[in-house]
Amino acid sequence: MLVPLLWVLALQSPGDEGTLVLREDTSVVGQESFAVTGLTANGVPNGWRVGTRARYGMGSRSVLLAPVVEIGPDTEPVSLQYEVSDPANPVRILGASARGRFTLRYLSPDRERTREISAGPGTVVLDDSAFALYLLAAWRARASTATVSGLFARAMRKESLTVTDLGTGSTTVNRQPVALRHITVTGGTARLVHVWLDAAGRLMKVEVPSRRMVGERAAGP
Fold first, then answer.
1. Within its chain, how far is the Cα of 9 from the centroid?
2. Is residue 50 within 8 Å of residue 136, measured between CB atoms?
3. Residue 163 CB: number of other CB atoms within 10 A?
4. What CA–CA distance (Å, rounded) separates 177 from 75?
């Protein structure tokens, strides 16, 4: 039986592709392209795939973060494939959910590690520097607060976070004033993250004040 929440996501969060321009203060430090794809089984909505590629820096010193998360009909994470192309510490992270646990394998050139983390209801896979994944937390938002467990696979940590839908608020995107749905994610290392969605549920902007970081959707379709 299809979980009702997935019907809500199917209506409010269409498949989408976009690019976030990443800024620290006013300086551009990277770019993040992302894609949201609906999954089906026998023609019935059966989850979502959210993949993103965040690149920081230029040339041989650039770092590429490329996680792909699949969530099931209950919006819980099913799998993770994450390529970290870092000249100082390259690693491939594979994750899979089973029996209330999320097993993570870390494959690097010189060793392999495995870690299991409890992953009960309300788990979302996030990353400190791949901002499009905060869309997964935003999907959990309610008019009142909702508590989620943020699983930061690359950092090997889990945090209790609070997600709140503040309704329509005013902000700017590409220096233009806009009215967008405003969601906050509070708690953990970041302390506060602002997530902004348009009326169609598309990700438009992510702000992390504690790091003076902003990811704004690039102008285009």
1. 15
2. yes
3. 25
4. 32
pTM of the model as a whole: 0.92
Strands (E), 27-156: 27-41, 44-56, 63-71, 77-85, 91-98, 101-107, 112-118, 123-126, 146-152
Q: What is the DSSP letter of 139?
A: T
Provide DSSP, 97-113.
EETTEEEEEEE-SS-EE
Which helix (H) or strand (E) element contains residue 135? Answer: helix 134-138
Instruction: Read off the amino acid at residue 10.
Output: A
Res. 10: pLDDT tops 50: no
> Residue 14: which pLDDT band, with cuts at 50, 70 and 90?
low
Q: What is the pLDDT of residue 1?
A: 33
C-alpha pair distances (Å), 41 with each of 10, 44, 72, 214: 14, 5, 11, 36
Q: Which of 199, 172, 194 is closest to 183 using CA atoms?
A: 194
Kindly report, residue by residue over 148-177, the tens digit of the pLDDT.
Answer: 999 999 999 999 999 999 999 999 999 999
Burial annotation 91-115 (CB, 10 A radius, 16+ → b, else e): bbbebebeeeebebebeeeeeeeee
Other beta carbons within 10 Å of 23: 16
Q: Which of 152, 177, 175 is nearest to 21 (CA)?
A: 175
- CA dist 221 and 208 (Å) reads 25
| Other beta carbons within 10 Å of 126 | 28
Helices and strands (H, E) in the chain, number of each type: 2, 15
